[in-house]
Backbone:
């Protein structure tokens, strides 16, 4: 898909700081996590601020994290992040499925998940269904390395509400990734049980869904409820985690939900070794170690 | 050791906020990590501020983390933390050694490591060598659950410079834990190679040292140098990690340095099962999974 051929959106640069003003420029962006604490980051420049039909979108240039994409007040992507989230949401299910030919991503507007999916030669088609075209536009402009997957011939981008896409379509998938923002804002109803049931129905009989499942430290009740629901739908539900310095508590989890394959027992080590991915975070050890959950997390989601 | 029998230290409460002033009380504490970003926390009350001979010590009461101990500007302990750090620095080496009878802790003034060491019945004596008596005093007063180990008959507390204790003593230990604050401030010279060589010399022939080894995300150069040095001293050097919401990047590492035992191969699963620890973080899965290192960390410390 070529984005350059599309009409440029009306994005307003609200603040431009001239170099002569730098001495007076002492601006900090803070993402509050529980309301009374959070990550605070010194901002070099507000690169772009836009209001899409669905949410506020900011791109901030920061000293410590480089450029950051902020959706609805939450930091989503940053240049100096580890890119662990995108590698982990993608490679764990793709190496657990013996033939991941048809992949669907719901959300994922920054392109990071799609770009990692496209690294697997087994994938014949990858569809990304993102509600907010402006997120894709802005990400492509400011985070070009994340979004190289958009240019792959096997990739197809649809701008549509994920819920409607899941409920109205018929084609089935081997892998469905729920690469969503937080359950406040536009992604709220994509955390509900009825949606997960819909995703189950759109998977082949040996299909795998992976959903980002928030921070068990800060979002304990959301996490508990989500896993209770998922276990009523999928025969295999396993949580795995990774370190994301820009996310709340820097500890992020994923729900591996599967009709047939186990994430470790069915891990395709031969394909992993053959593909020789150049990752920053994901590797064989991490694939297995990520499923080792701390005691408080096991208790939270009722895992023995 | 009874602390109550000791002379109360001259600790000044600099700020006391009356309830009538609460409306005007909007105080935030920020720990900067790289200088231009960090964790920011709303402070309900400055409980205690002291200047010891070695460092500034603050106890803050916060909305999200409860009471927090801050040494030399760095958050060390908080009531709503996961207590992962103390469990991980302790149980990993103690279950890897078949007979951890004599344990030494350098630092560890908050008492958390000692309290966890005392949960192992194999331990016959545990010595804690902390330079700053005031840290122990203040921790005992505000974090009593962390410091129950101080009252154990097998425990002995020495207030002395760790370097001098290591260099001048002769008795040997099965386990030595370096439970230190950051390599700025009073613990700076306890991160040097000559100190680690001294610790090696004070270990029995099958002894294990575990040292906290900072965040590979924020302190990459410190971590790289430290592991290069440790590998020149110990035959077995393995990094493991845990999630600590109150530390920089929330991802903290430990150097497992051993003369004989491997942390996973020699893990004593029978003793682990028998002891039935009631942990918040550490368990069998985590003991093994914590040694799975992300790709960028493996590259940083040259591990294949």
Residues:
């Amino acid at each position: 898909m070529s984005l350059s051929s599309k009409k440029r959106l009306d994005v307003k640069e609200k603040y431009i700081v001239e170099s002569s003003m730098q001495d007076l420029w002492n601006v900090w962006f803070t993402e509050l996590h529980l309301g009374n604490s959070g990550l605070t980051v010194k901002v070099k420049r507000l690169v772009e601020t836009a209001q899409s039909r669905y949410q506020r979108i900011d791109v901030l240039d920061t000293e410590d994290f480089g450029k950051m994409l902020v959706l609805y007040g939450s930091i989503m992507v940053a240049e100096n992040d580890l890119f662990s989230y995108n590698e982990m949401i993608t490679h764990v299910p793709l190496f657990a499925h013996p033939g991941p030919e048809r992949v669907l991503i719901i959300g994922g507007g920054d392109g990071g998940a799609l770009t990692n999916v496209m690294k697997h030669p087994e994938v014949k088609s990858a569809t990304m269904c993102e509600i907010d075209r402006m997120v894709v536009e802005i990400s492509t402009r400011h985070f070009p390395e994340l979004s190289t997957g958009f240019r792959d011939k096997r990739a197809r981008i649809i701008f549509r509400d994920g819920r409607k896409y899941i409920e109205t379509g018929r084609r089935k998938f081997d892998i469905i990734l729920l690469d969503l923002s937080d359950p406040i804002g536009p992604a709220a109803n994509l955390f509900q049980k009825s949606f997960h049931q819909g995703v189950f129905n759109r998977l082949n009989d040996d299909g795998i869904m992976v959903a980002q499942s928030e921070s068990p430290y800060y979002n304990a009740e959301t996490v508990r409820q989500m896993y209770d629901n998922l276990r009523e739908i999928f025969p295999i539900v396993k949580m795995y985690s990774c370190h994301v310095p820009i996310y709340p508590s820097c500890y992020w989890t994923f729900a591996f939900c599967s009709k047939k394959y186990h994430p470790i027992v069915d891990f395709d080590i031969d394909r992993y070794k053959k593909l020789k991915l150049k990752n920053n975070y994901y590797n064989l050890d991490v694939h297995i170690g990520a499923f080792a959950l701390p005691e408080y997390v096991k208790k939270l989601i009722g895992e023995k």
